[in-house]
């Protein structure tokens, strides 16, 4: 998969193409399929894609509007960039809220009038925040939200007579025990403490590290007033948090082999296959691990760091792609996706890999729809009490990619000095803030 920098370049060209198509009247970047169906893409596994198909079938039954749906898991953003270059975008893309800035800056998406969208008042205000761009306008419709928590092999913990971790020190000690004390009892040195997807692809290392950075009292950026930002990634708290994460790799040596090239889609099996005992991930994994492990695992709120508790908050938006000739149908599908019916189907009862992680609709009880599972209540509570979105700069992706590369390098080179590396990163952040015209220093 190409890096974000390569992707940004491709999107820059694609964005110009889309804007030209929309503004000139000479063509369209998308116009549905040949039979007038809405063309919809989502970044989804086949399992999740099957649930989307149920949603779209119900939508078609209710409205008569057909949907041509394609779930794509690998190289999703590259596929979107290629479609934009070819002026053949789908009508709707369902993708990470973190892609909002890129989509807006490259002209790939339409502005959304929140007040004219049926059911919009029923959505959580915090969910709408993930669809709001730096200019205060909305360029997506929130479809789901999520927080993160710590998954633990409960059977291993109880076999070793250890308590649930409440602090970073507890967490490190638990991971060390899983690494060294043969928790599965097979007499082999084949278990690891912590599962970490720390690849530079899509900035995964930064994505994984965000919660821990905030738990340590650090941050990527801080607001300086009037919508301006200054780097905070080199603050003493940020440096201390980065050093603690580096120590997991270098001093404690409790991280699974190959972590530096792992993306989440490849990481999940390490936990269910008995290779790792601690994994910070989202609610979408509860159902899968219920099938794979039964009662052998538990989910707890992530232990507090020196700065307290915090978890990355994010989700997925419904993006109404620019240039579509089916704008009324786009709107109607977006309205159905956020409706109680659409959200309930998306929560997928108690089955694995739901497209809707936590419902954005205030009229839908996520916990009830997931069978009253207390673990899902914990995710809801974590989102509400400790969830933090990444800074609302015009385009977050360059910051995520730059920080992902720096953190990956720190984890790979044990002699690297976190303070020196984060000082360099802060300078890169300053330059990016200036490029995006939001530097407040």
UniProtKB/TrEMBL annotation:
Residues 1-23 form the signal peptide. PROSITE patterns: PROKAR_LIPOPROTEIN. It holds the Pfam family SBP_bac_1. Keywords: Cell membrane, Lipoprotein, Membrane, Palmitate, Signal. This is Sugar ABC transporter substrate-binding protein.
């Amino acid at each position: 998969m190409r890096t974000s920098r390569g992707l940004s370049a491709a999107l820059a060209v694609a964005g110009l193409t889309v804007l030209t198509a929309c503004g000139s009247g000479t063509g369209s970047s998308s116009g549905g399929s040949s039979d007038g169906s809405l063309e919809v893409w989502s970044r989804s596994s086949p399992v999740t894609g099957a649930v989307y198909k149920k949603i779209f079938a119900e939508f078609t039954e209710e409205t008569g509007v057909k949907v041509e749906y394609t779930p794509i898991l690998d190289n999703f953003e590259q596929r979107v960039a290629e479609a934009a270059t070819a002026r053949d975008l789908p009508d709707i893309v369902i993708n990470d809220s973190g892609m909002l800035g890129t989509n807006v800056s490259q002209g790939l998406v339409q502005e959304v009038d929140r007040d004219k969208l049926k059911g919009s008042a029923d959505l959580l205000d915090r969910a709408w925040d993930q669809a709001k761009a730096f200019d205060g306008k909305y360029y997506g419709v929130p479809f789901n939200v999520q927080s993160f928590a710590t998954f633990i092999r409960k059977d291993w913990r109880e076999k070793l007579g250890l308590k649930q971790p409440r602090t970073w020190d507890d967490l490190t000690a638990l991971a060390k025990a899983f690494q060294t004390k043969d928790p599965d009892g097979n007499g082999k040195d084949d278990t690891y403490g912590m599962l970490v997807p720390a690849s530079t692809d899509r900035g995964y290392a930064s994505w994984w590290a965000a919660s821990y950075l905030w738990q340590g009292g650090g941050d990527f950026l801080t607001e300086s007033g009037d919508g301006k930002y200054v780097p905070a990634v080199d603050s003493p708290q940020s440096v201390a948090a980065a050093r603690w994460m580096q120590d997991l790799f270098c001093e404690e040596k409790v991280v699974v082999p190959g972590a530096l090239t792992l993306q989440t889609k490849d990481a999940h099996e390490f936990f269910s296959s008995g290779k790792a005992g601690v994994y910070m991930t989202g609610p979408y994994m509860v159902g899968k691990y219920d099938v794979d492990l039964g009662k052998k695992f538990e989910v707890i709120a992530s232990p507090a760091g020196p700065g307290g508790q915090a978890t990355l908050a994010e989700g997925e938006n419904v993006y109404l792609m620019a240039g579509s000739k089916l704008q009324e149908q786009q709107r109607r599908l977006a309205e159905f996706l956020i409706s109680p019916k659409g959200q309930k189907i998306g929560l997928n009862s108690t089955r694995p890999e739901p497209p809707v992680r936590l419902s954005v609709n205030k009229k839908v009880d996520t916990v009830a729809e997931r069978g009253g599972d207390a673990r899902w209540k914990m995710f809801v509570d974590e989102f509400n009490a400790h969830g933090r979105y990444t800074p609302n700069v015009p385009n977050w992706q360059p910051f995520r990619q730059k920080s992902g590369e720096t953190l990956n390098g720190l984890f790979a080179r044990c002699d690297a000095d976190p303070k020196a590396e984060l000082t360099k990163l802060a300078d890169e952040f300053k330059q990016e803030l200036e490029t995006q015209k939001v530097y407040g220093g």
